[in-house]
Amino acid sequence: MVALLFALLGSAVLGATAWAQSAEELRRSGDAGERWDGLMEARTPSAESAVDKINQERLEVYRDRAEQQDAPVQSVGKIYFEKILDKVPSGTWIKKPNGEWIQKQ
What we know:
It contains four helices and four strands. It is an alpha+beta fold. The chain has a four-stranded mixed beta sheet with strand order 2-1-3-4. A hairpin with a 4-residue loop joins strand 1 (32-35) and strand 2.
């Protein structure tokens, strides 16, 4: 089931240009990072509003995909995270499931 989700999601990852640039800027500045569950997290208070908007848009995509595939939204988010991780540059902050922040090498 995960393999099927992965195949179907591959081309759609980060397709919404309305938030892609904003997410890119937040990652580049270090004001926000990517979480293991496919959502962003603000690392500074000034980024919270933008991150909330990005996460709302991401969750809409995740819910749509989850409904199409009859899969849990959390599983879809984790699959998207893997694709996001492949695309983000070195230095991007990544939050692991244990709460630890690391930078992508």
